[in-house]
């Protein structure tokens, strides 16, 4: 049964073509456009520090790197899902066993839900004033501000990790032998890494901002 499924998947897989390249290039352009909007309009968040200049360099590097990386991961994930659904392709029941496809579905679904929530909140906020310009918020850092405030990239990484865990525990982990699933797995690894790094940075920032080691009282006692 497994060999038959792999055979069907291999026959249905298509080679990398011009349309695939154009879609991925467009997704990359969306990432650069989002980066430019954030970099020009987002006060308080600078570029990625490439050189060590303080004791907190590693934390700052990881925080900013994961923040900026999600600007490219999102359009690439959505684009890859659309490409995976193009024909010729394997049947959906076989695609649902491929971790790369599952990663793109889980992260894209969560992104769509988060974007819909942000859209509804902003629509309720701006529609009563009859400012139809609220539709342009997708081109402004306001949407990105809301997305990061909701920890949307972190939740997308958690969704990928959870879906992969369910896939593995059910014994349905069947990696596809094609570039689509391979790229999907690579993006999934990036999402999981972003989730794990963010899960570490959150408590670190909280403790560093609210506690001192050793506390000031102990420092005074030691002296």
TrEMBL record:
Tell me if Transmembrane helix is a UniProt keyword of this record: yes
The membrane-spanning stretches of this chain are 15-37, 57-81, 101-122, 142-166, 186-206
- Keywords (A to Z) from UniProt: Membrane, Transmembrane, Transmembrane helix
Q: Do the record's keywords include Transmembrane helix?
A: yes
Report which superkingdom the organism of origin falls in.
Bacteria
What is this protein identified as?
Uncharacterized protein
Q: Which organism is it from?
A: Singulisphaera acidiphila (strain ATCC BAA-1392 / DSM 18658 / VKM B-2454 / MOB10)
């Amino acid at each position: 049964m497994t060999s038959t499924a792999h055979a069907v998947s291999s026959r249905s897989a298509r080679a990398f073509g011009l349309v695939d390249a154009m879609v991925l290039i467009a997704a990359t352009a969306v990432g650069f456009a989002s980066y430019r909007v954030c970099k020009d309009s987002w006060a308080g968040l600078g570029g990625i520090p490439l050189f060590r200049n303080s004791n907190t360099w590693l934390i700052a590097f990881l925080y900013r790197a994961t923040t900026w990386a999600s600007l490219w991961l999102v359009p690439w994930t959505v684009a890859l899902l659309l490409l995976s659904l193009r024909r010729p392709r394997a049947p959906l029941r076989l695609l649902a066993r491929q971790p790369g496809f599952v990663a793109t579905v889980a992260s894209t679904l969560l992104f769509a839900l988060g974007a819909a929530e942000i859209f509804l909140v902003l629509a309720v906020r701006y529609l009563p004033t009859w400012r139809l310009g609220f539709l342009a918020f997708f081109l402004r850092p306001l949407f990105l501000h809301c997305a990061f405030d909701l920890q949307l990239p972190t939740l997308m990484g958690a969704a990928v990790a959870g879906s992969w865990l369910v896939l593995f525990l059910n014994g349905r982990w069947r990696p596809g032998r094609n570039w689509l699933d391979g790229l999907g797995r690579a993006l999934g690894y990036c999402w999981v890494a972003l989730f794990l790094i963010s899960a570490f940075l959150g408590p670190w920032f909280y403790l560093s901002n609210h506690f001192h080691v050793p506390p000031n009282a102990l420092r005074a006692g030691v002296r």
